[in-house]
Amino acid sequence: MELAPGLGLCRRIVDLVGTGATLRANGLGRGRAYRRHLRPARGQPHRAQDPGRRAPGLDRALRRGSEWHASWIARAPASTPPSTPCLRIAGAWRRTSTERLRRSSIQYAKAAMQRCWTTRRASTASRSTPEQIRISAADIAAHAAAAPNSVRDALVQAAERIEAFHRRLMPADLDYRDDVGVRLGARWRPLDAVGLYVPGGTAAYPSTVLMNAIPARVAGVQRVAMVVPTPDGALDPAVMAASEIAGVTEIYRVGGAQAVAALAHGTETIAPVDKIVGPGNAYVAAAKRLVFGTVGIDMIAGPSEILVVADGANEPAWIGADLLSQAEHDEDAQAILITNDSAFATQVTDAVAGHLARLPRATIAAASWRRHGAVIVVRSLDEAPALINRLAPEHLELAVDEPLPLAEAVTSAGAIFLGRHTPEAIGDYVAGPNHVLPTARSARFSSGSRRWISSSARPSSAATPRASRKSARRP
């Protein structure tokens, strides 16, 4: 960490402990780094900072900066949902019986019924016996065969592109000998087992199966265990077809926090895994947070986000549709437009209203747009990168003639879509890069690259007696 400023890996160090040794070693004064970003808003008196109260100051710095003093500019990360019985199971579970999984699904779904209807729908294991929780190969094949040929062809096309991209992302092993004769290296090896959570309470997500299972297969993971809620006991043909194409090895009809607990700790039917990946609702995300440490997780996924930078040369209806492509996912999703043309901004808002009049998920999309949507008019699009980096959006569209200069100035975004003819929907389905991306401003420090998810590096060292003696003599 002390070397980071000198190597250009960061601009400043914020010391969270009392000694200040790290700051002094880098020529920084105590508190100087973060207080610079706590300037009061215009008309507000400056308040002296107490060195013993750094955490609240840092928290405020994340929510507001001197450049863009607006309460909505950096949405706070999704909060942990209230403690409910359906989450206690994830925190307290140990290896137990599949029958307990079934009983727990009934018990906790009933307890949560008055609090979260999505948890009630997701807890569909209550309709299954222990023997029925694992979906048989025959059932998978039968339901996959029911998928229309056009759907299967689209899934195959997407799978081929996803696999090709992720094969190019695979890291190479490292092996070299240093100047004193020590042989150093790192070998990338796949995890033994990965658990894949696929949402299914209100919609089917075959693309999520492809985006999570294919990178695991490319990495060489031998066991990919998928859990998916099955409302009313029905299996979605497209999801089953995607699981066949992606190489999923086993599927269980269970969802919600208890599915995460089962993957982490295991049952008689479900063997535990090494890492759990895939999105879910707030309860699934909270359960993943609780089991982290027992198993690895990919990320804590929050509501979807899209930020579109567009000038007046775009078709307003296209930009409006792109904004709603994420707003329709969740009432807490966020869609933002940045433009330098106020007339175009009005046209886009009118287009959004027109789309909402005929959108199948209009109720959800309208609530998202009303609560979290925003249109920002700037003097010049050169101002956009500073805003983008503060927001660190999950999806970023640069709908301009020359998107590369803007993209070069962006340091924080989950995925970038360049040009007027690259809508975010392409990335969600068929472009090839992964659509599982960091949300809630976590694009500042993480990425959607899945090459790290299903493999890990094993460093190695080998020294001869002579090399050991040489190393020991060096300071």
From TrEMBL:
Residues 47-58 have a biased composition (Basic and acidic residues). Residues 446-466 have a biased composition (Low complexity). One of its GO terms (molecular function) is metal ion binding. Residues 38-58, 446-475 are annotated as: Disordered. Transmembrane segments: none annotated. InterPro entries: Ald_DH/histidinol_DH, Hstdl_DH. GO terms for biological process: L-histidine biosynthetic process. Its cofactor is Zn(2+). The keyword Nucleus does not apply. Keywords: Metal-binding, Oxidoreductase, Zinc. One of its GO terms (cellular component) is cytosol. It comes from the Eukaryota. It holds the Pfam family Histidinol_dh. SUPFAM superfamilies: ALDH-like, Periplasmic binding protein-like II. Belongs to the histidinol dehydrogenase family. This is Histidinol dehydrogenase. It comes from Geodia barretti.
